[in-house]
Each structure stands twice: as structure tokens, then as C-alpha cells.
Amino acid sequence: MNITSAQYIAGRGGNNSSITATIDGQELSVPLDPANRHYAEILRQVEEGVLTIQEAE
Amino acid sequence: MALSTIQNNSFADTAVHGYRNLLINGAMQIYQRGAGTLASGQFGPDRFQWGSANLDNLAGTLTQDSDAPDNFGSSLKVTVTTAETAIASDEYAYLNQRIEAQNLQGLGYGTSSAKQVTLSFWVKSSVTGTFAVGLYKGDNTGQIHNKTYTINSAGTWEYKTVTFSANTLAGGAIDNDNGIGLYVNWHLGAGSNFKGTSSSSGWISYVVSSWADGQDTDAVLTTTNATWQLAGAQLEVGSEATPFEHRSYGDELARCQRYFNKVNSSGAYHVFGHGIAWNTGTGDISIGIRHPVTMRTTPTLGNSGLSGFGVDPSNKTISAMTLYHHNESQSTLKLTAASGYSAGDALQLIDRDTTPNANLTFDAEL
Predict the structure, then answer these.
(1) Which of A3, B279, B345, B350 is spaced 20 to 30 A from B179 at the CA atom?
(2) CA B134 – CA B153 distance, rounded (Å)
(3) Where does residue B310 rank: exposed (0-12), middle (13-18), buried (19+ CB within 10 A)?
(4) Furthest-apart CA pair in chain B: how many Å?
(5) Is B93 helix (H, G, I), strand (E, B) or coil?
């Protein structure tokens, strides 16, 4: 997956509830679920140091 | 009907029972996404995914096609529009379906009672040659078992069956969870790095040089306008291929929707879901959408473009759409719309009457 951006989205109450990410050219909303393949790949790329998740606004 | 008329062998393990195809959408009936490309991670007919590494020229499509063998209505078709100049040592491409681990516990992998499985399929290609086809599992110890099949005649539907040995290796267990249990791989080309360690006699521990061992021809990938088609794909327990298990469209669609669900608009002002504004002035809105079946895991939300959606009343434009609170059964969408709503207002997410029609996607693929 080519992930070019990622930013947390705050849920009601202020906790992060999802990530808005541009993946293979498409903007997607990714849940914070390790079994979700997009989230797993985001975590892998963060671990690898090639992706940073921006804080929620 | 008298009980005496029921054939005793209908109850035997050797009888051909229903629900035996471990693959989903083997008849290529379900095609929610439409055409894909030959980029890694793309899908054609549901559940069938393209994988590749390091290819630098290849372009083409992954589509559903009405050309199919007798007794089938559809096939999956790979069409190469720009050929790969040559397959370098670090390049490969394959079609695969990933099977959910908890659906494979009956195989008993990693135990002495593990079972053989047989893969059967129809294939048609514009180029002849020998191709690798195999199984790979990643849970516990990575292990692989590849075999080969040969396309004898170009442009002709041919029926192939391949039986894979029982996996009794230590570390062969497939976790009982919702992750990937098995990859079923149809290889279409591979460089020298991925060949040289044979697993044709049975399961072995995975090494890179075993990935596509047996793949002899790369000509599908290196020939402009080459085609390769697949239909009637079935993976079943046992050493014999039984007739293809035709399932109803609705049954197969529901199976596919566990992994991917596309919600299409019926046209202008189609209502995708209802919800409320929870703040006044900021346009913060939540809309609940229930999934038609329980999905494999919490899905990723996609949309066809925010300009295609509106919020009623007043058909206001949307500037953001994200997942809010969600699980495998329901996704609650957080929308940011033009201001003018008050906390507690009842709202609905609609198609704004733009072209093409809007759609939402929920992706829980493996």
C-alpha cells in the first residue's frame, strides 16, 4: 500500500476514533483495529519509520 | 418419502455434501468493485486479489468477463495492456484469494490428523506453458506447498485439478481467529529469487526461493494483449475434485459482504442513512449505517467523492466524512456539513444528484 498521509480523527469525548489516510490515492477513514488491514499497514509503516500519523485537530 | 429410500452413502464422508468449497465467489459472480488494475492489492471479482512486487512496466486490468466454460456465467480475466519488458530476479505477480483462518480449523493443520485439500479450476490463457499454483500459510511457522499445472492449448478453457498434501509439520497450526489462514495463489510470473526451492512433494518451511517455485513461463506478463482467465475455482477437503458447488447469487454476495460491502445509490436523493446533529453551528453530524452481514472486522470507510453527498434537510454540502464509533455490525459516520443545523436536528445523508451516483464502501478484506 502506498500511504501518503495519515491523521487521527477525534471521537466524541476527545479520544481518537479513526485515522483519515490517503492510501493508493484514495482518501479513506481507517478504524483503530489491528485486524483491519489498512490500520495494520499504517502501524507497520509507522514502526518502519516511513509514516507519521498527525495528531487530531 | 420413506426412510428406506434415502441412500446410506449420503451420510458417508465420501459423499458429496454442500458447503464444501472453501473459496468464496469461485464462480466469479460477485463484482462489487468493478474493474481493477494490475497493481498490487487490486481486486477484480470479489475476494480475488492481485499481488505483485517490483514490476516496473506492467499495466492491465482485472475484470469479470462473460466468457466462461459451460455451466458458468462469468470468469475472472487478466488482460495485459502494457507488458513487463522482462521479469527481473526480484519481480513477481500472482492472483490470490485469502481464506479466513477460523474457517480452516477442519483441516487440522499442524497435527497428525491434518487433511489433504484439492483445488480445481477452469483456466484459459492466450499463452501456453507451465504455471505454479499453491498454498501459503503465515500463522505460527510460515509454510508453503506449490504444485504446477500446464496450459496446453492457447485460447481454450481447460479444467485443472491439483491435490495438496496434509500439513502435519510442527508449527503448521492455523490460528482460530479472523486473520489470514491460507493464501491460495495462482502465479503468473516470478524472477529467479522466488524459484529454486521445491515444495512440490509436500509442505515445507517457507523460504523466499520457494514462493513461486515451478513457475516456468512469464509470458502472460511479458506479452502485450495477453489474457489469462479463471473460472469455477474450488478448494475442498480430500484428494479428489468434486463437481463445482454452485451457490446462489444471494448466498455468495452475503459471503463476500463479510469482507467488502459497497452501498450504491439508487439515484438522486437516495438516502444512505439517518442521524442527528449533536452540536449547533459546527455542522457535526452522526449517521448510523448497519452492515448487511457481520463483517470480518471493523471496516475501512471509503466514498466516491464528497461532492456526491448531501445532508437533508436543505441538501447541504459535506466537507468531511470519517468513521466515528463503529464495529463489525455498524459504522457510525461523522459528517461535517455546512452550518445551519441545531443540536438534536434529525438529518439524513443523501445522494446530491451528481453524476456518477455516490457510493460508500466498507472494506474488511484480509
Answers:
(1) A3
(2) 22
(3) buried
(4) 74
(5) strand
- Alpha-carbon distance of B46 to B62, in angstroms, equals 11
Taking CA–CA distances from A16, the nearest residue in chain B reads B324
Nearest partner of B240 among B144, B119, B123, B149, judged by Cα: B119
What DSSP character marks residue B175?
Answer: P
Q: Which of A29, A36, A38 sits opposite B322 (nearest CB)?
A: A29
Integer Cα distance of B323 and A56 in angstroms = 13
* Residue contact B300–A30, C-beta within 8 A: yes
pTM: 0.94
CB distance from B300 to chain A under 8 Å? yes
Per residue in B165-223, pLDDT (tens digit) is: 999 999 999 999 999 999 999 999 999 999 999 999 999 999 999 999 999 999 999 99
pLDDT along chain B (366 residues), means of 10: 54 68 98 97 97 97 98 98 98 98 98 98 98 98 98 98 98 98 98 97 98 97 98 97 97 98 94 92 87 98 95 92 91 89 93 86 98
Cα distances (angstroms) measured from residue B173 to each of B70, B106, B214: 38, 11, 25
Task: Compute the distance between CA of residue B284 and CA of residue B276 in angstroms, rounded to an integer.
Answer: 9
- Supply B336's cell numbers: 461535517
The amino acid that residue B312 corresponds to is D
Side chain identity at residue B162, one-letter code: V
| B305 vs A: CB within 8 A | no
Contact B298 A37 (CB under 8 A): no
Closest chain B residue to A30 measured between Cα atoms?
Answer: B300
| Closest to B42 measured CA to CA, from B60, B20, B57 | B60
Amino acid sitting at position B330: Q
